[in-house]
Amino acid sequence: MNKVGVIMGSKSDLPVMQDAIDVLRDFNIEVEVDIVSAHRTPEKLFDYGKHAHTKGFAVIIAGAGGAAHLPGMIASLSPLPVIGVPVKSSNSIDGWDSVLSILQMPGGVPVATVALNGAKNAGILAAQIIGSNNPAILNKIIDYKESLKQIVLESAKDLK
Ligand SMILES: Nc1c(C(=O)O)ncn1[C@@H]1O[C@H](COP(=O)(O)O)[C@@H](O)[C@H]1O
């Protein structure tokens, strides 16, 4: 029950969503990627949201641009935690359309929303959720945080 589902509204979102897929694979977490659109494939959306928790998923990452209803609709259907990635799509209003669609959920139906195009953080957050109950993944997160610290400390050495 450690799999992460990474879904997006269109294949055009893949260049952004690839960051989540890459970081999860770096953490050796199994990822299943799919295209699911609330607007264009509503039956697939319903089926995915209703059954993901019976298929070994622990977390769902959902990315979409524009009128980004996908993450919220998945959150309304699924008991699993949903992380939303606002995607700055080609005809967007600077990405604000997607940010606000994903962020401003009604009470009772949370979507953990990351920054615009913040798929990497979505992947790390999903790994942290899994790591809270999995010591091997938790240790990888600890090592990852240590590596971030070392990069910053190294970069500061040049300044002296
Ligand atoms: N926001 C949604 C949903 C949805 O929320 O269900 N389905 C597709 N889209 C978004 O439409 C944008 C343009 O899609 P196309 O590039 O396919 O025209 C994409 O960013 C997609 O996530």
Automatic annotation (TrEMBL):
It comes from the Bacteria. Its EC number is 5.4.99.18. Pathway: Purine metabolism; IMP biosynthesis via de novo pathway; 5-amino-1-(5-phospho-D-ribosyl)imidazole-4-carboxylate from 5-amino-1-(5-phospho-D-ribosyl)imidazole (N5-CAIR route): step 2/2. Pfam families: AIRC. Substrate binds at residues 10, 13, 40. Keywords: Isomerase, Lyase, Purine biosynthesis. SMART domains: AIRC. GO terms for molecular function: 5-(carboxyamino)imidazole ribonucleotide mutase activity; phosphoribosylaminoimidazole carboxylase activity. Belongs to the AIR carboxylase family. Class I subfamily. Catalyzes the conversion of N5-carboxyaminoimidazole ribonucleotide (N5-CAIR) to 4-carboxy-5-aminoimidazole ribonucleotide (CAIR). This is N5-carboxyaminoimidazole ribonucleotide mutase. It comes from Mariniflexile gromovii. The lineage of its organism: Bacteria, Pseudomonadati, Bacteroidota, Flavobacteriia, Flavobacteriales.
